[in-house]
Design a protein that fits this description.
This protein is mostly helical and 369 residues long. It contains 16 helices and 6 strands. Helix content is 43%, strand content 4%.
């Protein structure tokens, strides 16, 4: 019997319903509906779990940062790095003198890699502890360790090759291939010329060896991801910078010292000086108290009244008038710079855009309220 004959035997209402059902079965929606009815419970759970896994994979990038994925890759398979070479840096009186000037001055290596006497003006390293490393648990960060970089073979850098030291200093990859936490200023130190980094290594190898065992840093997951993502290998020569003018020399020194790192507000988006270099407003955790970094541009809210003589005096004595700079400000190492280099730093500061700092922040490194 034909389909028309079948419909004639049905009531009009039933015929219409049957015809709609037949049409539905031949539509895409009908085919999908039939397919869904044929899906087993096991297949359904597989689909749900796949969707959940997909969402779990996407959520870190959505809620944290899309750089999470390359950082996780680097954490699993190691940071970007170059192979170590067998190069050595021949010691010489010139390299030793230059290395001392950099390490004890603008680089401030022993500020972090030493236990310091915070009760003494300038907070120098404790006697016998220069370069012997420091456990930052004393400053409330039990996960961070600045390693012993003295030539001690058992607990320091005595067994590290020259290129291991150079790679650590400029590229952020340790002697054992681990990514260094960016509290190590390798992002600034990468601008060291090849000759300057050779001088640094020569001088560090000349300081007295100190036997001082320390554990490795024990970073949390976010810190490990951050550390793994940042290193960039240096694969071409780094020439001597152009220092023919005071501004250019000052820029080189300010970059090595990472002045912008402390004197820029990175964590307060509503602040008027947020992400404005050298405008201050960066809350820094110190060993005794927290400190708000000052504006060091030549805006009236900064250091517009600093002359060469005042700037030199502040860097030499740690005082501005009757007020003492907080020891978190590393004037204790910057006083080892020559007056000419201090003036170069001030001159390059004159070229920085002026930043008007938000009210309530001192321009002299005062304690936070």
């Amino acid at each position: 019997m034909s389909e028309i004959g079948i419909y004639r035997q049905l009531s009009a209402k039933e015929a219409v319903a049957s015809l709609h059902l037949e049409l539905w079965r031949h539509t895409m929606l009908g085919r999908i509906g039939c397919t869904v009815r044929r899906i087993s419970r096991r297949q359904m759970w597989i689909g749900i779990m796949s969707l959940l896994i997909f969402c779990a994979i996407l959520s870190p990038g959505f809620f944290l940062d899309w750089r999470f994925y390359p950082a996780a890759w680097r954490l699993m398979f190691g940071p970007r790095s170059r192979s170590l070479t067998g190069r050595t840096f021949e010691p010489s009186p010139a390299r030793l003198a230059r290395g001392r000037y950099l390490v004890e001055g603008i680089l401030g290596c022993f500020r972090c890699h030493s236990e310091r006497d915070w009760d003494t003006l300038g907070a120098p390293p404790l006697p016998g502890k220069k370069g012997a490393g420091y456990d930052y648990a004393a400053q409330g960060n039990p996960r961070l360790i600045a390693p012993n970089i003295t030539p001690d073979s058992d607990t320091g850098a005595g067994s590290w090759t020259d290129d291991m030291l150079a790679r650590s200093i400029r590229e952020g990859v340790g002697h054992d291939g681990r990514a260094l936490f960016p509290a190590m200023w390798y992002a600034s130190f990468r601008h060291l010329s090849d000759e300057d980094v050779a001088s640094v290594v020569v001088y560090v190898r000349s300081i007295p060896a100190v036997h001082h065992p320390l554990p490795q840093s024990n970073l949390n997951l976010i810190e490990k991801l951050t550390a793994a993502y940042l290193p960039e290998p240096i694969t071409s020569p780094v020439p001597e910078p152009d220092q023919s003018e005071r501004v250019k020399r000052g820029a080189y020194l300010a970059t090595l010292a990472d002045c912008a790192g402390c004197h820029t507000s990175h964590y307060h988006p509503k602040a008027p000086v947020h992400e404005k270099p050298f405008g201050g407003g960066n809350l820094i955790a110190g060993p005794i108290h927290n400190v708000m970094s000052p504006n060091i541009t030549f805006d009236p809210s900064g250091i517009s009244y600093y002359t060469d003589d005042i700037f030199i005096s502040v860097m030499r004595t740690g005082k501005i008038g009757a007020r003492s700079l907080d020891p978190v400000m590393p004037w204790g190492v910057y006083r080892n710079l020559s007056d000419e280099d201090r003036c170069c730093q001030r001159v390059v500061g004159l070229a920085w855009p002026r930043r008007s700092q938000h009210p309530g922040v001192s321009s002299h490194g005062a304690h936070t309220p």
